[in-house]
Amino acid sequence: MTVVSAKHALEAAVEAARWAPSVHNTQPWTFVVSEQEIGLRADTDRKLRESDVSGRELLISCGAALFTMRTAMRCEGFEPVVRTLPDPDRPSLLATLRPGTEAQADETIKALGGEIERRRTHRAGFADVAVPDGVVERLVLAAMEECARLTPVRSPDAIRVIAGLTQAAQGVQAQDRRFSLEMIRWARPPDSSRTDGVPAQGYPREAARTDPHFPQREYAWQHGWGSEADQRGATAVGVVALLTTRGDTRQDWIDAGQALQHVLLEASAYGLSAAFHTQALEMEPLREFLRIQLCSGEYPQMIMRLGVTFDDKDSIRRPLSEIIE
């Protein structure tokens, strides 16, 4: 292993991590890069203090960045050596990663790496195109590899329950001014030069309703922002899936983030996009109801819908100068 190639692998990993998904595109991470390893740190200034009191969503976002770095490093020809939560005295240090032995990336890893910058979050209904069962099974296996469980919800009654809980949570949050102000802090106005948050073209001004209805975040709250993209026909719910973990510790949240990004990159390679619904998971009584009634006692970390969309949106990310310490 040459010093030059290892250094390039570290640089490629940090560059790739910028494109990981995060709640409201807060990008709540920073990186400390040396000649030998990368330290992934939680940027707690970007924590959602109203909707994410425990920091669960922040750590899921950072876990997604960690899996992205692992994938990029493998694409550069190195097996990553990872330590999560390596120092109890530094709780913001979530993981360290360094190049290990040289290893040729296989076609699966290369395919995942090719989707890192192409993957996009969807915020509307899907086209009425069936998702093959074989693809869903691949996504289930992807989550399993990262110590999490992805469960496709097949029962129409269960799907209606999840949609109803999402509607209920959205309705309660909409009445909470602090919740609303926190969310719109991360909604970018049209033509904004910000490099974080959700851009106005990133969600429809009026999304077509799915049946059952899965409401989207009201990023346009009292502003009328949003894209004018034609949503006619994009009313399919898609495949509803629950991402769960056996425990609910900081390690489990990081694992959930790694599993989430593995699933998303795999889905993107098959032409699928994902829409996220975390409203009910941000209200502990509703999250507990889901855990007991629909998740077999496991802890729900993400509710998502997977499907086909023909949208082609741009994405924004902070420059490296802002995220490297």
Automatic annotation (TrEMBL):
Highest taxon above the source species: Bacteria
Annotated signal sequence is none
Q: Which residues lie in coiled coils?
A: none
Q: Where is the Nitroreductase domain?
A: 8-34, 116-307
Protein name stated in the entry: Acg family FMN-binding oxidoreductase
Species: Nonomuraea helvata
The lineage is:
Bacteria, Bacillati, Actinomycetota, Actinomycetes, Streptosporangiales
